[in-house]
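Comment on this:
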Amino acid sequence: MRHPSSVDFVESANRVGIPRTDDLNSELHDGVGFIQHNIRRGIRQSAYDAYVKPVRNQPNLVAETGARVQRILFQGSQATGVDVIVNGKRRTITAAREVIVSAGALNSPQLLMLSELGEGSVLQSHAIATLVYLPGVGRNPAGPLLRPLLGVRDTRKFV
């Protein structure tokens, strides 16, 4: 359920000509809409609480703190693992099934480009070969770069 003042804000913005966008994570960032949240039992959850915490004790999940991913490794067009630096030492971690890139609005495209995925001319200007030509990588960053224009604090829980 949406807070009534949030609904009013979005409707007012529409009336003065600001376009509505239903997904602020899509290509269209210019507009007004509702931010997507992970909500469980009426309480907002972090990505960690929603997705990692429930499976953190699974034997096939390894959480490595202080690790800095250097690049994604490929065999042909299949991602097979990552090169990381942990405590100053380079390591290779191989994936059994998939590699998930979740490094944020700035670091995810940087990691893709360091892994030779992106706009060929941009990669070449940094002496990086092009494994896969993906012209949208690194363009129109969103997410943490966008901040709410209006904050509403309400002690009631909306379910």
